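step: validate -> pass
step: tokenize input -> pass
step: predict -> running
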Amino acid sequence: MVRGKIQMKRIENATSRQVTFSKRRNGLLKKAYELYVLCDAEVAVIIFSHKGKLYEFSSSDNMQNTIERYRQYKKDVQSNIPENERYTQQLRLEAENMAKKIEFLEVAKRRMLGQNLGSCSIDELQEVESQLERSLRNIRARKGYLFKEQILQLKAKERYMQEENTKLSAKPAERGGGDRTVPRVAGKPLFLAGRPLDME
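step: predict -> pass
step: emit ->
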């Protein structure tokens, strides 16, 4: 039976991912040892698992010696590269990283829209489904919040209109309470010092 080609992407299933990590780690360390023995090469391999556990192999007695040799080599090489060339390399690397991020986001966007799902595994489809459910919960929560805010605003407006209506209703009564009968003589109002004379 022909073995299917393994897609180079993150394994979503945690158990399968751990099994694959253990197998490939051991294979990598074995290859490093063989390269050291067969070719008399100085080899150093450092591996950190996703949980932070360290695995390493060094053909020398001290891993630090190989690391320092590597650092010195990189320093010497960098010192021989003109400043503008280093800057160009940095820009190129940043552009490549940005392109990868854009591609990843585009793929995620298409999957969220239900496009290009034919190549997705069950784990990937479950992840897309979980993301959609989270988005739907957030939308509902936001919608509920806005409804509550709108209700509170309408209630506040209603209270304000009731208070204004009460004030307007009270003003005619106040004006009516201050109205007094002006005394008249021979059918004409009687005033004293510019004011109506109270005959009571």
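step: describe -> The first strand starts at residue 44 and ends at 48.
step: cleanup -> pass
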